[in-house]
Amino acid sequence: MSSVLTPDQILGVDSVFAKEDLEWAGIVRKWLDENVREKIGDWYIDGTIPARELAEGLGELGVLGMHLEGYGCGGATATQYGLACRELEAIDSGLRSLVSVQGSLAMFAIHHWGSEEQKEEWLPRMAQGKAIGCFGLTEPDVGSDPAGMRTYAKKDGDDWILNGAKMWITNSPVADVAVVWAKTDEVDAKGKNVVRGFVVPTNTPGVETPVIKRKISLRASITGEIVLDNVRLPASAMLPKAKGLRGPLSCLSEARFGIVFGVTGAARDALEAALDYTGTRIQFDRPLSSFQISQQKLAKAFGQYASITLLAAHIGKIKDEKGVMPEQISLGKMVTVDTAMNICRDLRALFGGSGITSEYSPLRHAVNLETVLTYEGTHEVHQLTLGRAMTGINAFAN
């Protein structure tokens, strides 16, 4: 029998990423293996996750807002953050979503667009996991076209009055603070109402965050709404540096970067699980891994995994060295999520009937990735974004 190499050994992952970055990823993986891995299947079946307990643990580990500078944040590189997301999503997309929403949406919005007072009030506690944040952009009738949002913020003296509703908001039922985007009375040069962001403590009168139930995908994640009924906020609640859709879209681009890396973790975990199962499951007096069709499936999945890992590493390098373009993030999300989902689907078949249980991860990953394919810009939106970049023609317009 030939010697056995892991997928990452064949890929030569130690030549793809720096030694210190892989050591950091190993620390994250060890913590997750010790504290989360054995429990995630039950959380998925139960449709919940102990968000507050995990947030504090992840805060102590140092992954919440780790790529931000100051205010208790780690100041890590983009690649280091990406590798942390990779380990988180190797456990479950819901876990990576908790961290992404906290660090790359809510914390990034405050860090990049907020006042000094907002930063000092929220970021240290959020970095420690002592406060949980959420990000309110998507609405019940407005997904891919944020310019069509109906949530409205009206001036009343020095205060703002917010009314509206946000939908599909990760963490909202357990959040202490929500970053909410709304149209205002202010009009831009084109005569359109200017979008502004607001830092909204969820205990503010008029704020409700009901949970969304009956999810089939991303079940180990707490998802809800943000309902705003005449919510009065002081002038200091507005993010002073964000004007227009550039604010929320910059946050989405930051979160998408974590997805680009994260889904490679789901693919790796599915591949590792399939290799372990087929190596020990006996059929016709032979391990499943000894059959040509099994090896064909495993080799195909490995090739796909290798390609998306290299793409993620390339985008991370660009982001660290010179800054990444939104189109490059769209390329990453479009390719890595779709490919990872297909890897997990294909490998599920190697488990036979056992593959539909929560004991094994590939189907859970595949079902979760259906959600990841949709949020932070649907697969089709990223296709059109790249089409526009390559042709100069905006296919979004009528």
From TrEMBL:
Keywords: FAD, Flavoprotein, Oxidoreductase, Transit peptide. Residues 24-130 form the Acyl-CoA dehydrogenase/oxidase N-terminal domain. Its cofactor is FAD. Residues 243-390 form the Acyl-CoA dehydrogenase/oxidase C-terminal domain. InterPro entries: Acyl-CoA_Oxase/DH_mid-dom (IPR006091), Acyl-CoA_Oxase/DH_mid-dom_sf (IPR046373), AcylCo_DH-like_C (IPR036250), AcylCo_DH/oxidase_C (IPR009075), AcylCoA_DH/ox_N (IPR013786), AcylCoA_DH/ox_N_sf (IPR037069), AcylCoA_DH/oxidase_NM_dom_sf (IPR009100), Glutaryl-CoA_DH_mitochondrial (IPR052033). The keyword Cell membrane does not apply. The keyword Flavoprotein applies. SUPFAM superfamilies: Acyl-CoA dehydrogenase C-terminal domain-like, Acyl-CoA dehydrogenase NM domain-like. Residues 134-231 form the Acyl-CoA oxidase/dehydrogenase middle domain. It holds the Pfam family Acyl-CoA_dh_1. Belongs to the acyl-CoA dehydrogenase family. This is Acyl-CoA dehydrogenase family protein.
